[in-house]
Fold this sequence. Notes:
The protein is mainly alpha-helical. The protein folds into two domains: 1-72, Arc Repressor Mutant, subunit A, CATH 1.10.10.60; 81-208, Tetracycline Repressor, domain 2 (Orthogonal Bundle), CATH 1.10.357. It is 68% helix and 0% strand. The chain contains nine helices and no strands.
Amino acid sequence: xxxxxxxxxxxxxxxxxxxxxxxxxxxxxxxxxxxxxxxxxxxxxxxxxxxxxxxxxxxxxxxxxxxxxxxxxxxxxxxxxxxxxxxxxxxxxxxxxxxxxxxxxxxxxxxxxxxxxxxxxxxxxxxxxxxxxxxxxxxxxxxxxxxxxxxxxxxxxxxxxxxxxxxxxxxxxxxxxxxxxxxxxxxxxxxxxxxxxxxxxxxxxxxx
Length: 208
């Protein structure tokens, strides 16, 4: 969207006096936000959360002014990236459950979760800075991911594919601890460690 675009909420009326342009502009704004968040995720991972605004705006295909219009403070952008990634990870759970057997859905979600953790490491400098803007994020993390994983665990345990004595909170933290980067392996290392953990979950299941 060009920097001199008509602001959202301003547009010519269609038949019957209905405003049509604002709907289009809102869709444009959402596309810009999505592009900025995707670009910011990549830049934060490669260059850190203090990367120049232009380094984020350019790959998103917008101007720096658009970045600041949507995210006036860097903390606003960091929070939005974090919450978007948490939401995407949480939303993957029901989709995987609908498409796969319970044990496979659980395994695939845990691998998806390790990808989220890689993004979270790119935000670590900001998240651990003590800025009160980020105080609510740990609770958001658990509120969204706890139930998502819990539903997958319950289904896999009910099917006899895994043991039934593992809670979602413990497993979220266990995977996070196993996913600490080792050398240059990055996510590949995390995936190997999670595969071992999944094997452990199967021990003690009715089908083991």
